[in-house]
Amino acid sequence: MKTIKINEFTYLKKSKIHNNGIFALKPIPKETKIIEYTGELISTEEGTRRCELSQAKHKKNPKNGSIYVMTIDKKHDLDGDTPTNYAKYMNHSCETNCEYIQEGKRVFIQSTKNIKKDEELTLNYNFAWNEEDYFEHPCKCGSKNCIGYILDKDDWPKLKKHLEKINKIFKKQ
Fold first, then answer.
1. Is residue 12 part of a domain?
2. Does 46 map to a domain?
3. Could you report the per-residue pLDDT of 20-44, keeping only the tens digit for each?
4. How far is CA 75 from CA 62, 70, 81, in A?
5. How far apart are CA 29 and CA 113, in angstroms?
6. Does residue 15 contact residue 91 with C-beta atoms inside 8 Å?
7. pTM
8. Which CATH number fits the domain that encloses residue 152?
9. Domain that residue 123 falls in
Protein backbone atom coordinates (compact mmCIF):
# COMPACT_ATOMS: atom_id res chain seq x y z
CA MET A 1 0.00 0.00 0.00
CA LYS A 2 1.22 3.48 -0.79
CA THR A 3 1.27 6.23 1.82
CA ILE A 4 -1.91 8.36 1.95
CA LYS A 5 -2.05 11.74 3.70
CA ILE A 6 -5.20 11.88 5.84
CA ASN A 7 -5.06 15.31 7.49
CA GLU A 8 -2.54 17.85 8.80
CA PHE A 9 -1.39 15.39 11.51
CA THR A 10 -1.54 11.92 9.98
CA TYR A 11 -0.95 9.55 7.11
CA LEU A 12 -1.95 5.95 6.38
CA LYS A 13 0.57 3.25 5.50
CA LYS A 14 1.42 -0.42 6.09
CA SER A 15 1.85 -1.22 9.80
CA LYS A 16 4.10 -3.70 11.62
CA ILE A 17 1.28 -4.25 14.13
CA HIS A 18 -1.54 -5.22 11.78
CA ASN A 19 -2.33 -4.46 8.12
CA ASN A 20 -2.51 -0.67 7.80
CA GLY A 21 -1.97 1.95 10.46
CA ILE A 22 -2.11 5.68 11.11
CA PHE A 23 1.22 7.50 11.55
CA ALA A 24 2.25 10.99 12.64
CA LEU A 25 3.00 13.30 9.70
CA LYS A 26 4.77 15.67 12.11
CA PRO A 27 5.35 15.84 15.89
CA ILE A 28 1.99 15.87 17.71
CA PRO A 29 1.82 17.47 21.16
CA LYS A 30 0.08 15.75 24.08
CA GLU A 31 -3.71 16.37 24.27
CA THR A 32 -4.07 17.22 20.57
CA LYS A 33 -7.38 16.28 18.97
CA ILE A 34 -6.02 14.41 15.94
CA ILE A 35 -8.89 12.90 13.96
CA GLU A 36 -12.62 12.24 14.26
CA TYR A 37 -13.90 8.66 14.30
CA THR A 38 -16.81 9.01 11.90
CA GLY A 39 -19.49 6.62 10.76
CA GLU A 40 -23.14 5.72 10.83
CA LEU A 41 -25.09 6.43 14.03
CA ILE A 42 -27.20 3.32 14.67
CA SER A 43 -29.27 1.78 17.46
CA THR A 44 -27.50 -0.40 20.03
CA GLU A 45 -29.55 -3.36 18.76
CA GLU A 46 -28.25 -2.80 15.22
CA GLY A 47 -24.74 -2.33 16.60
CA THR A 48 -24.95 -5.69 18.38
CA ARG A 49 -26.22 -7.36 15.21
CA ARG A 50 -23.37 -5.92 13.14
CA CYS A 51 -20.78 -6.96 15.74
CA GLU A 52 -22.13 -10.51 15.79
CA LEU A 53 -22.05 -10.61 11.98
CA SER A 54 -18.43 -9.38 11.95
CA GLN A 55 -17.42 -11.95 14.58
CA ALA A 56 -19.03 -14.74 12.54
CA LYS A 57 -17.10 -13.59 9.43
CA HIS A 58 -13.90 -13.49 11.48
CA LYS A 59 -14.39 -17.05 12.74
CA LYS A 60 -14.75 -18.30 9.15
CA ASN A 61 -11.75 -16.30 7.90
CA PRO A 62 -9.56 -14.40 10.42
CA LYS A 63 -8.63 -11.85 7.72
CA ASN A 64 -12.29 -10.74 7.53
CA GLY A 65 -14.75 -9.45 10.07
CA SER A 66 -13.11 -6.40 11.64
CA ILE A 67 -15.30 -4.67 14.20
CA TYR A 68 -15.64 -0.89 13.92
CA VAL A 69 -18.74 -0.43 16.11
CA MET A 70 -18.43 1.56 19.31
CA THR A 71 -20.90 2.45 22.02
CA ILE A 72 -22.06 6.07 22.12
CA ASP A 73 -24.74 5.83 24.81
CA LYS A 74 -27.45 3.40 26.00
CA LYS A 75 -29.44 3.81 22.78
CA HIS A 76 -26.78 4.48 20.13
CA ASP A 77 -23.67 2.95 18.60
CA LEU A 78 -21.39 4.37 15.94
CA ASP A 79 -20.44 2.05 13.07
CA GLY A 80 -17.14 3.34 11.71
CA ASP A 81 -16.95 0.85 8.84
CA THR A 82 -17.30 3.56 6.20
CA PRO A 83 -14.88 4.44 3.36
CA THR A 84 -14.20 7.96 4.69
CA ASN A 85 -13.43 6.93 8.29
CA TYR A 86 -9.65 6.73 8.27
CA ALA A 87 -9.58 6.60 12.09
CA LYS A 88 -10.74 2.96 11.83
CA TYR A 89 -7.20 2.08 10.72
CA MET A 90 -5.69 2.96 14.09
CA ASN A 91 -4.28 -0.20 15.61
CA HIS A 92 -4.68 -1.51 19.13
CA SER A 93 -1.70 -1.50 21.46
CA CYS A 94 -1.20 -2.38 25.11
CA GLU A 95 1.00 0.76 25.34
CA THR A 96 -1.04 3.48 23.69
CA ASN A 97 -0.31 7.05 22.71
CA CYS A 98 -3.93 8.05 21.96
CA GLU A 99 -7.40 7.71 23.45
CA TYR A 100 -11.03 8.13 22.45
CA ILE A 101 -12.69 11.39 23.48
CA GLN A 102 -16.47 11.58 23.20
CA GLU A 103 -18.27 14.90 22.68
CA GLY A 104 -22.00 14.26 22.55
CA LYS A 105 -22.54 11.70 19.81
CA ARG A 106 -19.15 12.44 18.19
CA VAL A 107 -15.89 10.58 18.89
CA PHE A 108 -12.40 11.98 18.44
CA ILE A 109 -8.94 10.50 18.79
CA GLN A 110 -6.66 12.56 21.04
CA SER A 111 -2.98 12.12 21.88
CA THR A 112 -2.18 11.12 25.47
CA LYS A 113 1.52 11.96 25.15
CA ASN A 114 3.86 13.73 22.76
CA ILE A 115 4.09 11.72 19.54
CA LYS A 116 7.15 11.78 17.28
CA LYS A 117 7.04 12.25 13.51
CA ASP A 118 6.46 8.87 11.77
CA GLU A 119 5.41 7.15 15.04
CA GLU A 120 2.35 4.90 14.74
CA LEU A 121 -0.72 6.19 16.57
CA THR A 122 -2.32 3.50 18.75
CA LEU A 123 -5.36 3.05 20.97
CA ASN A 124 -6.67 0.49 23.41
CA TYR A 125 -9.78 -0.90 21.70
CA ASN A 126 -11.23 -1.48 25.19
CA PHE A 127 -12.81 -4.86 24.43
CA ALA A 128 -14.71 -6.09 27.49
CA TRP A 129 -13.54 -9.25 29.28
CA ASN A 130 -15.38 -12.39 28.25
CA GLU A 131 -13.96 -15.73 29.38
CA GLU A 132 -15.55 -17.53 26.42
CA ASP A 133 -14.01 -15.52 23.57
CA TYR A 134 -11.10 -13.32 24.74
CA PHE A 135 -8.69 -15.65 22.89
CA GLU A 136 -10.35 -14.80 19.55
CA HIS A 137 -8.76 -11.34 19.75
CA PRO A 138 -4.99 -11.84 20.13
CA CYS A 139 -2.90 -8.69 20.44
CA LYS A 140 -0.01 -8.22 18.02
CA CYS A 141 1.25 -4.87 19.30
CA GLY A 142 4.70 -6.17 20.23
CA SER A 143 5.07 -3.81 23.20
CA LYS A 144 7.13 -4.98 26.18
CA ASN A 145 4.01 -4.86 28.39
CA CYS A 146 1.71 -6.65 25.93
CA ILE A 147 -0.99 -8.64 27.72
CA GLY A 148 -1.44 -10.93 24.70
CA TYR A 149 -5.07 -10.11 23.94
CA ILE A 150 -7.06 -7.04 22.89
CA LEU A 151 -8.70 -6.15 26.17
CA ASP A 152 -9.68 -3.07 28.18
CA LYS A 153 -6.82 -2.30 30.58
CA ASP A 154 -9.28 -2.35 33.51
CA ASP A 155 -9.94 -6.03 32.67
CA TRP A 156 -6.27 -7.12 32.60
CA PRO A 157 -6.43 -8.44 36.20
CA LYS A 158 -9.36 -10.71 35.21
CA LEU A 159 -7.33 -12.12 32.31
CA LYS A 160 -4.26 -12.67 34.49
CA LYS A 161 -6.34 -14.46 37.13
CA HIS A 162 -7.96 -16.63 34.43
CA LEU A 163 -4.60 -17.53 32.88
CA GLU A 164 -3.16 -18.41 36.31
CA LYS A 165 -6.11 -20.77 36.85
CA ILE A 166 -5.50 -22.43 33.47
CA ASN A 167 -1.76 -22.79 34.18
CA LYS A 168 -2.53 -24.52 37.51
CA ILE A 169 -4.81 -27.00 35.72
CA PHE A 170 -2.11 -27.85 33.16
CA LYS A 171 0.58 -28.20 35.85
CA LYS A 172 -1.57 -30.81 37.64
CA GLN A 173 -1.78 -32.95 34.49
1. yes
2. no
3. 999 999 999 999 999 999 999 999 9
4. 30, 12, 19
5. 7
6. yes
7. 0.85
8. 2.170.270.10
9. 4-38+84-172
